Structures are given as C-alpha cells and as structure tokens.
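Team,

Forwarding the record for the chain on the shared tracking sheet. I've put the sequence and predicted structure together so nobody has to dig through attachments.
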Amino acid sequence: MGNHQKLLHFFRQDPACSPRSFSSSSTSVSDDDGHSCSSYATTDGDATPTTSRYASSTSPTPKSPWAHFPGLGAAAEPGATGLVASLVKEDGHVYSLAATGDVLYTGTDSRNVRVWRDNRELAGSFRTASGLVKAIVVAKDGRIFTGHQDGKVRVWRADDAASPAAHRQVGSLPRLADYLRSAVNPAGYVQTERKGRKRAVWLRHSDAVSSLSLDEGAGLLYSASWDRTFKVWRVSDSKCLESVRAHDDAVNTVAAAGFENVVFTGSADGTVKVWRRETSAKGGATKHVLESVLREGESAVTAIAVSPEDRVVYVGSSDGLVTYWHWIDGEARYGGVLKGHKMAVMCLAVAGNVVVSGSADRTLCVWRRGGAEHVSLAMLAGHTGPVKCVAIDEEKPAGSSGDRQFVVYSGSLDGSVKVWRLSDADTQEPAALVTEDTHVAPPQPSGMWRGRLSPAPYAGAWAPYQTPELKRVAAA
C-alpha cells in the first residue's frame, strides 16, 4: 500500500503516447516449452532498441518534476489527484499488468514482461520466445504467474530481492513430467473446438490463456482459456487438479471470490456462471460444481471483479455495462447496472469501496460504493487506444479527514501504461447513481481533466487495434 508512493514519486513523463509496433534486435531466448529456466535482461540505459523512452530533460521547476505534463499542473504535487505518469515502451499493445509493492509488471504482445520501478525499467525485462502475455498475477511468496497466447502458464521468481527486474523461470503449468505422462495415455486426450486440432492433452489449454486468478487461502491458481475451459492448479506443487468444460464459447475471465469456496467465470457466450469448490479429504483433489447461472445475455462477458470484503461481484460486458450483484446468505442478489461507457468494457478492478472499469472507448470510469449504492467519482481520459487492463490499490490509510487515496494503473492497446491517483472524496456533481431502470448520460470528466482532448469520436476506435479479443467482442 504505502510502497506505491515510492513507485509514483519516481515515474517521469513520456513525451508521447501513440501506438507503436514492437521492434528489437535483441537476441531471442529459445522457448523452453515451459520446462526449464530462461531469462532476458538488459541494463538500464543500454544502446539496444529496447532502451526505455523516458524524457531525459530535467524539469525547470524542482518542486514538481511533472510541471510540463499536459493538463497536470498542480495535480502532480504529492498527495494531489490526477494523472501521475505515462509509461511508454516500443513493445506493442499492453495486454496485462500487475502491481505489487513498489514494482509494476506489464505484459505485451512482444512476449516481454516489463518491470518498472524508480523511474526506469530495471535491467530490462524477462521474456519467453513464444506466447504473448495475456495475464499476470503475483503471489504473496513472490512468484509471478503469466498466462500466454500459446496456452501455457509460466512461473517466474525474482533472482535477487534487491533487483526485482532480474527474474528466472522456475516452471510452467503443466509440468513436463505430468504432460508426458498424460500424452502417452490415450485416456489423457479430450476433444477440442480448435481448427486443425481436434484432440489435445487435457492438462494443457488448447487455446490462449485469457485470465488468471489466485485463491491464496486455498493455495489454488485458476486459469481460463478460449478453449472453453478453466483449470485448477495447486500452487504448492504445480499439479493440475481439475479441468472444467465451463462454457459454450471462449472463457474470457475467471475470478476466485475469496469466500465460501466460490468461483465465477464469464464467457463470450454471454453467461456468468457460479461454481462451488468441493475438496476431497483424500489427496486434496477438487471438484467444482455448477451452482447457478448468474447472467445470460447476447453481449459477451469480458471481465469479472470481486470485492471479498463486501461480497460484491462486478461483471463487465461488450455492451458497455458493468452489472453488479451482492452475495447475501450464500447466494447472489441483483444490485444494479453502472452505465459510463460508450463501447465494450474490457477490464475491471476493485479495491476497498472503489471500482474501476476500462473500455474500448479509451476511457476509465471510477465509482465509489456506499452500501447498496454507487456514486461516480471520475472519468479518466488520456489513452488513445482501447483500455485492455487495469489495477487499483489503496495508496495509504485514511487520514484524519477520512478520505482514502487510490492508485490506478491502466494499460492500453495504444502501447502505454498510465498511472493515476484519485481520492474517494472526488465525487462528481451531480453524482451518477445508475440502476437498471435509469438512463443517465455517461459521467463527464471532472475539473482536473477538463481541457484535455476528448477521446471522442468513438466510431471506428477499434480499427487500428484489431486484436483477437476485439474481434471476438465485436462479433458478440
């Protein structure tokens, strides 16, 4: 929490935020097929094309290193709210990110995971030679799990606690021994929907890994895939405990609730399903039983986020809506709909009583939850491409005023990551409480963002960013 202040105080302005294509002359690390260690690193400031594009000039105003950031002004002062930094690397689209302590991990379609800290990319990145990085989660023990386009989940660990950018691969899911054992057994194969590949070993996803979710209390990792399944992995020994054929189309998101052994999955088929985990006393095997279908609709489900403390479930969909349910007495009860986007919701994140949604309309909407109601805090505009991933964390405990500050990280298909600071007291006027039966115009940017270029018009906003995800959402 407090460590985020260290991260924020060292970020610097990038002179531009525009779509870039990945180009690098660095040597690729041969793919180990996920079964042995690999790493990729450069030194900060080296001469290779992977050198970070930070602005090197010093600010003429020592008091604020962000004095010339467009639209920032006094908002860059420590403790103030607004846009804090924009991180740009010539690495292609940003698909995933995760923040832990004072370190930020970002995954791109260049197969790199960048490590950001203290105004530079520490020692470069870590990289595999196949599978763009679609999901990142960080465990409390320091292990980093990455989900990839090639259907694999890779496991990493920092080589040195003092140098968090130096990482090595310590494994992959599934393990090689487990995979080979299943591959030689005819019963270890399942039918797939993928063209040209009718049968595959059940242990490995036969299509892209779209989402990862950790249940730290249960010691389990969940991986969702476009192959219509989700898999359950035991973190302690990397063993696959279960593979569940969950939906009739790609599974776009999975979220372990953190309470009552409940797991939520969302799919391009328009459904959200609730699964309850049953654990065998013998061998710790799991069995996930379908408990209910929370949502059915024509619009694809693109993101799910859960507030375990308040037991609220948020679902983002391709129609631009965020729907939420309250978990009461062992079941989900409909709460309402938050309307703030003109295009598909691509990602969601929750921290405390604040929820953030990122959209293909290039904006983020922020709401504060108060009991059963939600109040609009802000619309964050600044990306020039669809917002693909978002993370939020509380920066510091509430002060004497009772206000809480949060840090929001947003990654976009424009190739940039933006860092924002906001307070749960920054309520827009009038407050936008949106329920199923009300029709309220999308919240307008608050005063701190007025004067910035509007992300509109939205027509054709996806045209330069025709990634597989957007094609699937558009088709839905």
